[in-house]
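Researcher: Go.
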Amino acid sequence: MRIVIATGGVMPILLGCGLGGCSDSKQQQLDVTAAAARAQQNIARYAADSRPGRHPVGTTKIAAAAPETLPEAAAAVVRRYYQRIAAHDFVRARALWCRDGESSTLDRAGFAGRFARYARYDASIAAPGSVDAGAGQLHISVPVRVTGTLSDGTRFADDGMVLLHRVNDGIETASAEAHLWRIESTSVDPVIPPPRAPATSAPGRR
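Model: Structure:
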């Protein structure tokens, strides 16, 4: 009788579990598993959005460049600048100045007019100086020697420095342009020899 009663007592419990209790438990387990999966996806998505290169709309962040490449990149910009001047490509030469050319203090017509008197304009680039870094800004000076001739054949030459600027890598900016070396100022201003005085004939003897 005890065995029958015990068996009879267990059966209702098993039936009750089959009717509702176990299914609720399984559903709860599925809900927890799904929630855990969604949480893991959110964590992965957050990590992806937080990695370098992912930024809010309207900002740009450049991965850090190797420090030893910075002087070489600056010298390449200066070399390109004078190559464009030599080719009379003044619009693109002016674009290598900061603020899309505005730092040259000349508009496109004025910039082109500045070089109109030169028939030939060449430049040789010396080794750049060291990079000056501060407050997220980088500066570097590149020594330059310019030579050439005027349209009338007069030769000229001058030595000077070209100062370049860029925003340091890792700093968010409105565009990637700010992370490129651009010309901020230059002391190169060719010294043109004064015109030769016309030869005067010696007064004739009487």
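Model: Helices lie at 2-50, 69-86, 90-94, 108-114.
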